Structures are given as C-alpha cells and as structure tokens.
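Model it.
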Amino acid sequence: MSELLVDFITSLDGFASGRGWPGFWGLESPEYLAWLGEQPEVTYLMGANTYRLMSGFAAGSVPSGQDEFRPEEETSVDELTRASKVVFSSSLEAPLTWANSTLVRDDAVEAVRAMKSSGSGLLSTIGSLSLCRSLLRAGLVDRFRVVMFPVITGATGEERIYDGYPDVALTMTGHRTFDGGIQLVEYKPRVLEHPPLDVPA
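Modeled.
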C-alpha cells in the first residue's frame, strides 16, 4: 500500500510564496539542498494550476522578477521533470507535454484512494493547496510535513496555506533543523470533528 505525504514549504507565517521573493525565499542552505537530493523516489500529485506553473518553468519560463533560474532552482525543476507526476484536472487537455506526467480527470479523492490501495512507494503532493485540503479532509494523508523558512512575509505573502482547512490534531513524528535556520517538522494528522471544548449536545 502506498503512503501519502502532504509536503509544504512555507514562510514562518504560513505563506507558500511572496511577491518579490525568489524560490526558497533565497534562504536555502547547503545542508537543506543536500537533504533534498537524498529523498526517495516519489510520485508527485498536483492540480492544474501547479502543473501550469511548474511545467512552464520546465519549458524555460522563469519566476516573475528574475532574469534566470538560480542553480538550485534549476536543479529542483530538473528533478521534478524526471519524476513521475499525476495531474488532476478537468480543464487540461491530454496528452500533457511535461515529461512523465499523467492526466487524471476522475475525482481526485477517489483516484488517490485507489492509488494508495493498489500501489506501493511514496505519493507526495506538491503545491496544489485545494488538492491537499481535499485529501486531508478525506482522511487519506499519512504524513504531513512542513519546512519553515525563517522569514515572515506579512506584507508580500501569497497563497495562505491553511485557509479553509478543517481542525487537525498533529502528532509529531520527526523534526530537523538545517544550518541553524530552516526548520522541518513532520506529523501524523488526524482530522477533528470538533475542537476539544465544543462538545456536541
């Protein structure tokens, strides 16, 4: 049976990106980049918006405000291109042009449920905030990992990650600090029917 990981890279205040900030907020470290390169083979799950963005980078587009990719950003995109990817969308047209990408038009929750029960290895989301919310609500997420970069983007942050989430209890299963600044925490999530003090009559 496959394991499903929801994997986020965030600012300390929970934004996925920020206007005027480069990838990794420009704060990636050698230790963190080395750890990224050691990760096991994974099948990435994403929605249409993330696919359009990332496949555009793979085709040569660069993030707004940059003239070219930094080496670590280019490496990250190259690794994604080589990886297996499953894209859930009713708006994209097959065949997808980004290498190793499979388009699925079926309901994402049911499709991932089937992938988990019939497959092996690791499934991991990338971006795709609404997809992550749906999979978490459905109780399909085995691991919830957040890598927090030491920056607050209160004025420029974009894509608030946890808006619209249910209440979730998190049991920590691992943590690590990279080069004294970047903090990784990993949890086993459990969606709550109600908060502890809101007991149904």
